[in-house]
Structure formats: structure tokens, C-alpha cells
Amino acid sequence: MNLTKVTFFRVVLLLMLFVISSGAKAQVSNEKLLENQEQLMEMIGDLRYRFDVLEKVVDDVMWHKVVGDVAYIDKLFMAGPPPRGAEEATTLHGSNPIKFWTYVFIPKDIDPSKEYPLLVFSHGGVHGDFNTYYTHIIRELMAQQYIVVAPEYRGSTGYGKNHHKLIDYGGLENDDVHESMLMMLENYDIVDPDRVGLIGWSHGGMISLMNGF
User: Fold this and answer.
1) Is 112 strand, coil or helix?
2) Which end of the chain, N or C, is surrounded by fewer C-beta atoms within 10 Å?
3) What is the domain range of residue 21?
4) So what's the pLDDT on residue 86?
């Protein structure tokens, strides 16, 4: 909440400075004023990404409140393929793998000596995210003793402007989801490799379909 207030006051201050400077510099050309206005509007537009990050932090806390009684919850940082065009990149940054977060939900009542089915849950919305909107589904899946991995593939909301703009619109986010599945199979002995399912709708449904082949 404090961060939101600070950001808001910064915007107000910038607007005031813009108005004051516009009045004080009567000789400034219309072109320069328009340029300043465009820069200011861009700054204001970028605030949405900062608010999204704040909302994501709050929602991550809420996960423990709404399903923490039935699930062990983790959030892992992992890497997918480099961005499209990386083969022609001239810098190391341009060819680096894309890092993203992945949620893991494990039922609290399972027997750690046994293996359980895994569901790979891809959120929809293209620029959506896996948030507590899905609470009722996760609770049902925990009751049925599924292990769930839910990747915040490239383009997901809540991780800043750069991650938001990495969306490949049906391309490399499929690979991010696939990497999440492999990560679970390679690192969790309680996952049954012969019982892996894919779930999602809208953009998540498309990703599930592509990963089924």
C-alpha cells in the first residue's frame, strides 16, 4: 500500500512539474511540448507494470491463506529457451535463456513413499497469470491427490514490463510449459512419470494441446 501511495505521488509531482515548466518556458516550441507530453504519458503507462508486480506479491501471500491448509505451496525460478531471434543476437543478453516462475502445489495428505499423478496447469489470458482466481480448482485437485505445476510462462502479467513483452503468441511459451513439466519429472520422486496430464483453457488450452504432441 505504501508503495502504491509513493508511486501515485511521484506521478502527481511529475505532472505538476510538467505544468509549471510548460508555463515558465513560454518560448518552448510546440514540438518540444508534445515530446515532453509523450514521454510523460509513456512513464504513466509503464506504471501499470509496477502495479501488476505489487498485485502479484499480494496474491502470492493469499495463496497460502486460501489453499495452505490442503497444499504445500512452492514457487520456483527456472529457465526456458532464449527469446525468438536469439540465434542472430549480437550480445550475451540477447541470447540468454528466459527465466520465469513456476508454482508447485502438492497435497498435504499424500504418502511421500508413493508416486502421484502430475497435472501441468497453463493459465489463460495470453498476458494473464496463475492467481487465486483458480483457488477452487486447486482445492479440488488437492482433494483428488494430484500434484500441480503451474508455469508463469513468458508474457505473464505480474513480473514487470520486460517479461510482459516476451510473449510469443503461441510459440515459445509452449516450451516454457514443457520445461516446467520436465523439471517436475526430473526433481520430484513423488511424481509418477506414467501419469502426466495437461489442463488449461483459452490460451492455456492451446498450450496444453501443443504440449500434447
Assistant:
1) coil
2) C
3) 2-53
4) 80
Q: How many domains does the chain have?
A: 2
Inside any domain, residue 95: yes
Q: Which of 204, 39, 54 is nearest to 120 (CA)?
A: 204
- Chain-centroid distance of CA 170 in Å reads 16
For the chain (213 residues), the mean pLDDT of every run of 10, in chain order, is 54 57 61 80 86 97 98 98 84 87 98 98 95 98 98 97 94 97 98 98 96 91
Phi-psi region of 117 (alpha: psi -120 to 50; beta: other; left: phi over 0): beta
pLDDT of residue 108: 98
Question: Do residues 167 and 96 share a domain?
Answer: yes
* Cell triple for 160: 514487470
- Let me know whether 204 and 139 are in one domain: yes
Q: Does 71 lie in the same domain as 35?
A: no
d(CA 80, CA 82): 7
